[in-house]
Amino acid sequence: MSVHGVGIDISSVRRVAALIDRYGERFVSRWFDESEFGDTRAGACRVASRFSAKEAVWKALRIDERTPIPWSQIIITPVEEGLTVRLDGELAGTAAALGIGPVTVSAAVCGDVAFAVAIAEKADCQ
Fold first, then answer.
1. In this prediction, what percent of the chain has a pLDDT beyond 90?
2. How far is residue 78 CA from its own chain's centroid?
């Protein structure tokens, strides 16, 4: 495997719960694609875990930080083995143009802290 980038992120479950309480569906729809949750009933722990996963993926992609971040185009969904990452829309095209291949992510919650680690591979190593 040839690595393009690695990203790590942590977030507060309490802070995410407060954002859900304050903004509800508006918060969730800004950050997440419908296929990830659909609504805020997912619970603060799961939302915080996915929130950290998206941040870690963005950092692993190493795309120009001046670019507006298309959070809903980083799609994190559960699979039997953990989580899977799918890049969508313009972000998928940008990643392909930069030679980025598969992106993997692992996320967990411990108490009030959600954390995630992502690895973006170079496309030529698939």
1. 63
2. 12
